[in-house]
């Protein structure tokens, strides 16, 4: 039986791969789509409607009080299979009726369906040819979302497409988290059913999907699976990643993704009640960005800064429940920052147990940036007494990473063995691991950018790219400090 299922999966994957390849070939012919950053959103919102229609079919069968979220004739089944609607007629229907309906005619929808309004308010049909659009729709009709095999396989294929758009986005300054880093952060967070899990910078949903897969086997009944899906929460500011995240979660079996489209710093500072707090935060906030003054002014003067990563760290401290925990990817600049940065780190160490900092290999976000990065793990259980550091090195014989040779999961194996399980027992110093007491951290002005004392590493042995990346990070931090001084001078006038 297992062999038969494996063969069926291969058949399904081959068939669906052919469908998606044909769909992408069709889009390449259309003059309105100039690249993957145009084609993937077009494919995603059409796939969303196709998958959503299948979910509605299922709801209609199982819900006694079923009310359609999308009324006829705007359901996928009404127009996508209409053989008479083709060419200009199809394009005009989509542009002039379907999308306006989805954007503006759902104001009376129940809260569970408000996601449609948020999703489609920035969606446009970019295909100019109604004939090519019709060909694309017919290709997507070949996907059977009623089949669990097709849904599973489609999720796999969609992840491969997302990797391509991440490559394209990297060229425009957005750096998506490598999947091995996500998997490592999720595993070492030791998630449990019933915990609320938030990614406030969820992008295309990598942390949320990995959390779902880590807990899915433990959810052994319908009620547990429904609760797990509700417990996965995300916030995303930009429309394209928001769309991709929704589609990604739907393809992984989440019927109603709990994803909010907003600036997370605005969202989190607006929700300060106990009921809005969460058990776990897993995230990689934007690096090196700057927030508008109206956003930074939401934070108290002593820690006010325009640096996005700093503000995310403060907002997360407020968002976590007592006893909650966080794994967050941060650049080196946050570790050695002074001024407001030092005050934020002091608060972190006073309120939370910053028990582990994993220093990622140089170039983990290559080829888009050489900025060094780290994963910080902390629990909101009381002040830090000591912080362990663990340095992950590239594989032997490798100096860095590239698109064709990215980071691999096994590079974290030694660290996970050293970790000591959920209670972090029997940790020992070695060539990669060392610890620093809170007294020494305070004496150093809360600088956490500490090198491995066991490696004998000095500047003479560091690669030029590493030194340049550190200098750039330092210059950015200096710029933030100067801006803060400028704000202070303005306020004292």
Automatic annotation (TrEMBL):
The keyword Methyltransferase applies. Transmembrane segments: none annotated. Residues 151-458 form the DNA methylase adenine-specific domain. Keywords: Methyltransferase, Restriction system, S-adenosyl-L-methionine, Transferase. GO terms for biological process: DNA restriction-modification system; methylation. It catalyses: a 2'-deoxyadenosine in DNA + S-adenosyl-L-methionine = an N(6)-methyl-2'-deoxyadenosine in DNA + S-adenosyl-L-homocysteine + H(+). It is an enzyme of class 2 (transferase). Pfam families: HsdM_N, N6_Mtase. The keyword Methyltransferase applies. Its EC number is 2.1.1.72. PROSITE patterns: N6_MTASE. Residues 17-139 form the N6 adenine-specific DNA methyltransferase N-terminal domain. It comes from the Bacteria. GO terms for molecular function: DNA binding; N-methyltransferase activity; site-specific DNA-methyltransferase (adenine-specific) activity. InterPro entries: D12N6_MeTrfase_N, DNA_Adenine_Mtase, DNA_methylase_A-5, DNA_methylase_N6_adenine_CS, SAM-dependent_MTases_sf, T1MK-like_N_sf. Belongs to the N(4)/N(6)-methyltransferase family. PANTHER family: SLR6095 PROTEIN (PTHR42933), TYPE I RESTRICTION ENZYME ECOKI METHYLASE SUBUNIT (PTHR42933:SF4). This is site-specific DNA-methyltransferase (adenine-specific). It comes from Streptosporangium subroseum.
């Amino acid at each position: 039986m297992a062999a038969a299922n494996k063969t069926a999966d291969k058949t399904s994957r081959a068939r669906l791969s052919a469908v998606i390849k044909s769909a992408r070939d069709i889009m390449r012919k259309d003059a309105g789509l100039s690249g993957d950053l145009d084609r993937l959103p077009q494919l995603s919102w059409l796939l969303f409607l196709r998958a959503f229609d299948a979910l509605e079919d299922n709801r209609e069968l199982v819900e006694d009080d079923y009310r359609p979220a999308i009324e006829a004739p705007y359901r996928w089944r009404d127009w996508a299979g209409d053989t008479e609607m083709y060419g200009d007629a199809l394009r005009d229907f989509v542009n002039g009726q379907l999308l306006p309906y989805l954007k503006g005619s759902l104001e009376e929808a129940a809260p569970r369906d408000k996601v449609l309004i948020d999703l489609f308010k920035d969606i446009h049909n970019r295909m100019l040819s109604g004939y090519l659009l019709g060909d694309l729709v017919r290709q997507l009709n070949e996907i059977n979302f009623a089949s669990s095999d097709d849904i599973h396989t489609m999720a796999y294929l969609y992840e491969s497409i997302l990797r391509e758009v991440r490559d394209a986005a990297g060229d425009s300054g957005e750096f998506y988290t490598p999947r091995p880093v996500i998997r490592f952060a999720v595993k070492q967070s030791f998630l449990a059913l019933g915990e609320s899990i938030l990614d406030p910078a969820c992008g295309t949903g990598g942390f949320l999907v990995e959390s779902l897969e880590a807990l899915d086997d433990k959810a052994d009944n319908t009620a547990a699976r429904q609760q797990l899906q509700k417990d996965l929460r995300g916030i995303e500011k930009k429309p394209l990643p928001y769309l991709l995240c929704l589609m990604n979660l739907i393809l992984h079996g989440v019927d109603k993704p709990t994803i909010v489209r907003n600036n997370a710093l605005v969202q989190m500072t607006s929700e300060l009640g106990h009921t809005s707090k969460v058990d776990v935060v897993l995230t990689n906030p934007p690096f090196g960005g700057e927030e508008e003054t109206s956003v930074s002014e939401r934070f108290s003067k002593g820690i006010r800064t325009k640096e996005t990563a700093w503000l995310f760290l403060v907002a997360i401290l407020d968002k976590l429940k007592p006893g909650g925990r966080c794994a967050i990817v941060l650049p080196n600049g946050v570790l050695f920052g002074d001024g407001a940065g030092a005050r934020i780190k002091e608060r972190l160490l006073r309120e939370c147990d910053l028990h582990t900092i994993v220093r990622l290999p140089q170039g983990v976000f290559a080829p888009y940036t050489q900025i060094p990065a780290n994963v910080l793990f902390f629990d909101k259980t009381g002040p830090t007494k000591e912080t362990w550091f663990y340095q992950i090195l590239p594989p032997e014989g490798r100096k860095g990473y590239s698109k064709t040779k990215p980071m691999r999961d096994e590079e974290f194996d030694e660290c996970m063995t050293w970790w000591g399980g959920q209670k972090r027992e029997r940790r020992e110093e070695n060539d990669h691991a060392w610890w620093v007491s809170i007294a020494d951290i305070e004496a150093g002005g809360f600088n956490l950018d500490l090198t491995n004392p066991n490696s004998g590493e000095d500047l003479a042995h560091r690669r030029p790219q590493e030194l340049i990346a550190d200098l750039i990070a330092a210059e950015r931090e200096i710029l933030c400090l100067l801006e803060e001084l400028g704000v202070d001078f303005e306020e004292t006038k």
